[in-house]
Write a structure and sequence with these properties.
Helix content is 31%, strand content 30%. It is built from five helices and nine strands. Its EC number is 1.11.1.27. Belongs to the peroxiredoxin family. Prx5 subfamily.
């Protein structure tokens, strides 16, 4: 399992882009993790699924609300990662109004999630293999903080905790 001091797993996530520009075409675009984290401080939070109750009502809105404060604390980007496809993540981004605040990144086949060792088996609930709820602060790809929630909890992966950790670096 991923731990503080590790390098974030390499691989590719997908991001749905609705407006062409800045070198991005319309539709799903591959995000090379190693290249995207190089030389940057990234606040990552992962969750079990798009449009799910806690994720939609608390987790994503918290990071949107704290986006400016996180950037003032030295965070270059905020990523939300979920085991969903890029189209679902794009629709959720529109619904949550994440533009210019949080990058909504799809881990459609759970490859990144498996590489972190932070999977959540929701097969019995009809949701398949998902991600545990967690957050981490990456500096140049290295895990500086890692906050893994207990099953069914939302206590340590929130934006307020991440902000305090970013300010302490």
């Amino acid at each position: 399992m991923l731990k503080i001091g590790d390098q974030v797993p390499t691989g590719t996530l997908q991001e749905f882009i609705e407006v062409e520009g800045n070198g991005c075409s319309l539709g799903p675009n591959a995000v090379d993790i190693a290249g995207a984290v190089a030389g940057k401080t990234i606040a990552v939070f992962a969750l079990p699924g798009a449009f799910t109750p806690t994720c939609s009502a608390q987790h994503v809105p918290g990071y949107i609300a704290q986006a400016d404060a996180l950037k003032a604390a030295g965070v270059d980007e905020i990523w939300c990662v979920s085991v969903n496809d890029a189209f679902v993540m794009g629709a959720w981004a529109r619904e949550q109004k994440t533009a210019d605040k949080v990058r909504m990144l799809a881990d459609g086949s759970a490859d990144f999630t498996k590489a972190t060792g932070l999977t959540l088996d929701l097969l019995s609930r009809g949701m398949g293999l998902r991600s545990q709820r967690y957050s981490m602060l990456l500096v140049n790809g290295q895990v500086k903080t890692l906050n893994i929630e207990a099953p069914g909890k939302f206590e340590v992966s929130d934006a307020t905790t991440m902000l305090a950790q970013a300010q302490a670096l």
